[in-house]
Prior knowledge:
By secondary structure, the chain is mostly helical. 75% of the residues lie in helices and 0% in strands. The chain has one domain (13-205, 212-403): MFS general substrate transporter like domains (Growth Hormone, Chain: A). The protein contains 17 helices and no strands.
Amino acid sequence: MDQAGPSLRSIHGFQPATYLFAARALRDFGDGFVAVLLPAYLIALGFTPLQVGVIATAALVGSSLLTLGVGLAGARYDHRQLLLAAAGLMVATGVAYALVHDYAVLLIVALAGTINPSSGSVSVFVPLEHAVLAREVGDRERTRAFARYSLCGALAGAVGALAAATPDLLAPLGVDRIAGIKWMFVGYALLGLVGGTIYAQIPPRPPEPDASVTGALGPSRPTVYKLAVLFSLDSFAGGFVIQSLLALWLFETFDLSLATASLFFFWSSVFTAFSFPVAAWLSSRIGLINTMVFTHIPSSVCLILAAFAPTLPIVLGLLLVRSALAQMDVPARSSYVMAVVTPAERAAAASFTSVPRSLASAASPALAGALFSAQFRGWPLIICGVLKIVYDLLLLFQFRHVKPPEES
Length: 408
């Protein structure tokens, strides 16, 4: 489709994509420690696993509504302005969590803010960043660019997960766990502030009208809707084992310490990060859809096996193998969506495929929280794995013949 836009690159020494990579890294660093600390924080405040699941659901629902609004506005407003507004909301969210411990207020902040209980990047920032990145690269470079974008986020998320042990490290200095976690939320707010200064470096570019696009979507509407339905099934499944709930499962089932959990999620994120360049290499040889499907199914099998594993080392080993495979579809999926729509539809397409995913994933954490109270706590892992395999087979059947430009 379109080629990279040289007009933007001539304004600054750096390409706009470079700013996106840096902002994504900062944001995912914050999400990395928040996803691990959120359940520990809520449990320390005296809330039940079900209440933790409800908070996670509220966060995902709020993210869905914000993402939908951004997708509708993306065709009419400069993406840089919308990214700056989202960064401001991130600052407000971190400050609110640092100051509040009332459950009702925390629920409202989860609904209206940017807290991300998932290991993936499901947030208001995503459709805007995807649209800016896709317009800056050519077709043959698009998947590699999304792989680098995902790599930066995953590595930063890995370090963020490791940083989740900070409250425990502060304990010998006389800082109790709740106070330590609150300071981490202050750090999350500061990351939003720095991210906003980075977004401000992206040169303004008002949206260009496209006569074929009426409303947010145009000729690609049927394709986007089909993808949205399938991605929703995948996300509904993933909502059973978002990182906060997986951490909760490890805490409750194996009495895992916060320091050990942070170390595990660090390596999990590292494995995920280095799977992205492999995904870009693989997609150039077997195609985007095949890459998405044939890396996803083995990861789901590992998750199901982890539910029945008898010891913690086996569980962690299976989950690490899953981490090396489960997110290889992410750059392929992002690139595919941007490839099969027109440039004017990209922000809306990224939003309309993300919003149903977020809404679907928002329905399952509360269910998973309830299932953790059952005698066999591995049900969420099994349900997630089975549903994801169903999604992979349906995606292969529906879209194996719909090729992006570089594969035509």
